[in-house]
Amino acid sequence: MNDPEVDDGLDLEMDQRLATFARNSREPALPDAVAQLPWAVQLDRARSNPGRFRATMGGFGGFGRALFAFARLGVTLAVAGSFLLLVGQARTSGSGTDIVQPASSSRPSSGATSSIGPEVVLVPTSGVVDDVMADFVTGAIRQAESDGAAAVIIQLDTLGGSEDAMLRIDAALHSKTPTIVWVGPSGAKAASAGTFITLSANLAYMAPSTNIGAASPVAAGGGDIAATYGQTEADKIMNDAIATMRSIAQERHPDAVAWAVSTVQSAQSYTAQEALSAKAINGVATSIDDVLAQADGQTVTTTAGPVVVHTRGATIVTINEGLIQSLLHTLDDPNIAFILLVFGVLFVAVELFHPTLLMGLIGALCLALSFYGSGSLPLNVLGVILVVMGIGMLVLEPNIPSHGLLAVAGVGSFVVGAVAFYGSPGPYLPSVAVAWPIIGVMTAAAAAYGLLLVRTLMQMRRQPVPVGAGLVGIDKVAGLVGEVRADLAPVGTVYVGREEWSARTRDRSPLGRDTKVRVVGQEGLILIVERVD
Amino acid sequence: MFAKEAYLGTDPVRAPGWPTLARDRAFDTAFVAALEAELAIAYRLAGYLLADSAEAQDAVQEASVRAWRGWANLRDRDRFHAWFSQILVNVCRTRLRQRSKRRTLDVDDIDLETGDPFRAALARDAIGRALSALSLELRMVVVLRYWGELSLAEIADRLRIPIGTVKSRHFAALRVLRRRIESVEGSSR
Predict the structure, then answer these.
(1) 3-class secondary-structure state, position A40
(2) In Å, how far is B155's CA from the nearest CA of chain A?
(3) A41 vs A63, residue with greater confidence
(4) ipTM of the assembly?
(5) A466 min Cα distance to partner chain B (Å)
(6) What whole-number percentage of chain B has pLDDT above 90?
(7) Is the pTM of this model over 0.80?
(8) Is B51 in contact with B132 (CB distance < 8 Å)?
(9) Could you give the CA distance from residue A261 to residue A249 in angstroms, rounded to a whole number?
């Protein structure tokens, strides 16, 4: 090529060699499919133009897809949300008298009850003070009232819970039937909100080796709450709690007020014996029978006026939580709320990378249940953010080359977030933390998920695509052996390379069905085959 | 290939299996004439750029579809040749980039016996085999220059880059090719 514009110093030998080689390149015949393009593309618009959709999506890159995924996630969350509303509805409607109908009560044969002696309703509770517990206790007390029970005993073992639920139980404890709270068995706690509940009852007893008072020592003036809500708000919450406690304690015994306030104000915790000497409780009772014996003959002030309690030799009717109630009550276990959150985030992440409606639905459900459960827990927003960020980093690690740094940071963020998942207990909330074994297992699960599952999915996506595969199949079938499906007379079909092709023999000689043939060439979309013996 | 009168008539599409509605359609014969004149060189260029006949067919098809969509808005139809080659070059460049992103098998890795006419043609000579050593941008210049037989100014127009860049890429490409060939010939001796 003797171009005047060619620079001096250009490798003229290579230039010549390339020009000659290119000029002598054997010209491949123009395929029919290409030759037909001038007409074919004009038909394109008459058809619904499927190419345009692909072009648009391609033009936006992953954006269109991401938008689609998010829209889908939105729908999923909406579905999960309405499910949750339904569950909430079930809880409320189930909290009437019928759910308290002792599903598994040890009620002796009816009729005999009144003749044997007085009846005492026992309501065993445990776990976080939440709406479920409030529903349960309120319903049980109402039931005892209508049954004309001699007394209601709430067996309590709690680290605390939400203020709303505590206030509801507090209100229910003021009933026509004498109410008794027994903190037991040994080892049980009536911490935070539990303290308020214990002192609200007409009679309060504690088993030996039980505690009452603050969940954990917090700085005077509520340093932890101050960190969360700000000093003014913290003071307000604190003063509010002190006022509530003062009025509750005043009803019990004027001497107990200072002691009761100290459980809130300086976050003090006391043993059963200390509580007894402060006149905050009526006695130390080792068992329910002991409670019945000690309570007998006491005069208490119910809403119906002063009543003498007759509990000696009473029949105990135990009321247990219904199935849905105990399931919902399980949700605010600090560990379960944490596990649900982690699984929720993981499943939602799967949904983003590998859209199947199911995963997103499960994930959204887990998240919704987790948020429901953590409503009565002192959730630390920073901890939650760290956990979610940690999972995010683990999920992104296989997609962003970081030489493992992102994975290390992800695990670190996850663990720190898990440790700090709960914090800042106020006067009512329980002081809880995620158990270490749970943190270990969930860290391993999140890391395994991020590093293995997402990596596998990405590898599947990036698998090398052989050039020309699935485009125009001749590259794939040339030389392959197949068999005749419809007689070649002279044109028929052959099955080769897992596809049916139109085919004929080179000399247009006929071939019968099931004859083995080899592909030796192509003419348009018709394969040229020869017989294989 | 179709005779001239074939597309001037009412039944231009004679290939078996075409939908009947194709026969009843009025075709834009000016577009057919313009595009038909480009197909041979377009297929050849795409074939040597992509080193794959199937992909070349796809590329020409994609370029043709885009040309048809833009046809109504093309003011100067005498420029069709330059315009269409620009589209084709863009399509091929996008495909080559996607191919490297998608981690497709490298041209070198492909068995040259698969019967692809373009790969076979390139494999005939050391200089053709050396083409795979070129980067995408250098390869485009070389193919347009020698297989497309374009002047450096025309290449600059098709690739929409300054002519100085074309010159330096051309220069660099030949140097890379020489080194590659010498190293291959040196090692085989």
Answers:
(1) helix
(2) 12
(3) A41
(4) 0.77
(5) 6
(6) 16
(7) no
(8) yes
(9) 8
